[in-house]
Recover the amino acids of this structure.
């Protein structure tokens, strides 16, 4: 039984990664959305390095929030439309664990690329090296939490009119704590006060989301499929 | 005589009961509201620090309390509706949401009116203001989700999950905003250091709190009656009632 559970998770992750590989443009859209949004800010705010350094943590983190939110529709959307999701719910494996697998695959294809490109974008904003490292670390801890919390929102709005805008409305207020401590960690490093406290709290939020979000997502999926 | 409370968990029996209860809350709401405003605007003395501007607390504080309390009550009924599959509980949750959002809006608006003469600005990113704003977003999200789903039973359940997720998040949001605020700006502005209140001010505020309570209950009951009418429009008991 335990072996088959791991095999099922593995199959879900492998399938989603394969689909992402076949539809590369979907993944790249989110990625370039993130890059473009971040690059727009200097054009709007002005090129003074001091200002840019000041706003960089917030800009990169808000852009990451928006990019994560945009990509949420893909987590269950296609599976809902073609009936795969119904089959997943009907499998003997616990839905909570399968949801975890779906979220993992989603993070690998949308969250991880953002994490990896963020330091390069930080350079555009003249962030010092230690702040760039914190930016990478904070996004590495924070973006999985974004995927987990977002999974609840997108599961609730499956097949609903105007689902994309609605998901934003539901999910963005819940993202606020992650934004505060993610951007706060980078700002604290830049200010020289150390980011350990922020990163610990960010980690705590990831753990809370890891415990509750897949469970709430599973309930939401069952409601949406009724 | 033992009262069977479960009797009133069905829309059919609750509808007339709610109708009888509405005046019992609406009349006290009006009386207490007038009394509280009279105490607040005419009896209570002028504050020696904030002048007349402080009088906005007679609206602001009750609204802020209700805004938070109603969310918890709403999540409670939504959770009961989700767990026991009782239609009336979910309707009660939906009926509370607009009143809660209204209270949140009043709290923000009056807070802004108070901030202008006292702090010299309409808006500061104070921890309480910010978390109240996010609370308004949570209400709006809840109502939008409930409105976007056509099937009422699915709307009940989906919005219940959202309300419960929100209730878990409210303390997290509150404390993160508070910490964010203390990190970003000095405690130059703080509502918590309010001077000790004169007894008559406290009386006026408590009267207003009861008025807001009574109003919120009455408004929710009126709204739930309308929802019952809307959802049960094809049922036999309602047709009987209308005859």
């Amino acid at each position: 039984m335990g072996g088959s559970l791991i095999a099922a998770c593995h199959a879900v992750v492998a399938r989603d990664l394969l689909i992402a590989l076949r539809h590369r443009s979907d993944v790249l859209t989110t990625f370039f959305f993130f890059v473009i949004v971040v690059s727009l800010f200097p054009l709007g705010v002005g090129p003074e390095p001091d200002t840019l350094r000041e706003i960089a943590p917030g800009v990169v983190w808000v852009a990451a929030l928006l990019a994560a939110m945009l990509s949420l529709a893909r987590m269950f959307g296609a599976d809902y439309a073609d009936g795969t999701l119904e089959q997943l719910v009907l499998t003997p494996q616990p839905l909570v664990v399968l949801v975890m697998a779906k979220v993992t695959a989603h993070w690998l294809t949308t969250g991880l690329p953002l994490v990896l490109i963020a330091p390069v974008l930080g350079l555009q904003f003249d962030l010092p090296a230690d702040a760039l490292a914190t930016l990478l670390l904070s996004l590495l801890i924070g973006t999985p939490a974004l995927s987990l919390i977002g999974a609840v929102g997108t599961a609730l709005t499956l097949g609903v009119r105007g689902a994309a805008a609605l998901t934003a409305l539901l999910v963005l207020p819940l993202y606020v704590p992650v934004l505060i401590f993610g951007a706060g960690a980078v700002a604290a490093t830049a200010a020289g006060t150390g980011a350990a406290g922020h990163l610990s709290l960010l980690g705590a939020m990831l753990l809370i989301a890891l415990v509750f979000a897949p469970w709430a997502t599973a309930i939401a999926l069952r409601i949406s499929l009724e | 005589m033992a009262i069977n409370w479960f009797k009133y968990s069905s829309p059919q029996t609750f509808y007339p009961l709610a109708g009888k209860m509405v005046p019992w809350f609406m009349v006290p709401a009006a009386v207490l509201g007038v009394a509280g405003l009279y105490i607040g605007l005419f009896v209570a003395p002028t504050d020696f620090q904030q002048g007349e501007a402080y009088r906005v607390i007679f609206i602001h504080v009750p609204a802020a309390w209700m805004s938070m309390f109603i969310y918890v009550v709403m999540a409670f009924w939504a959770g009961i509706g989700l767990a026991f599959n009782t239609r009336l509980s979910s309707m009660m949750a939906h009926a509370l949401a607009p009143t809660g959002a209204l209270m949140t809006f009043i709290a923000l608006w009056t807070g802004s009116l108070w901030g202008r003469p006292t702090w010299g600005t309409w808006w500061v990113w104070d921890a309480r203001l910010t978390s109240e704003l996010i609370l308004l977003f949570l209400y709006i999200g809840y109502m939008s989700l409930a409105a976007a789903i056509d099937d009422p039973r699915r709307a009940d359940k989906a919005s219940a999950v959202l309300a419960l997720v929100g209730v878990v998040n409210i303390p997290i949001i509150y404390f993160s905003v508070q910490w964010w605020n203390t990190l970003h700006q000095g405690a130059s502005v703080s509502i918590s250091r309010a001077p000790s209140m004169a007894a008559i001010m406290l009386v006026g505020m408590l009267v207003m709190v009861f008025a807001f309570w009574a109003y919120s209950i009455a408004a929710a009951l009126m709204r739930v009656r309308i929802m019952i009418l809307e959802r049960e429009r094809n049922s036999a008991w309602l047709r009987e009632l209308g005859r």
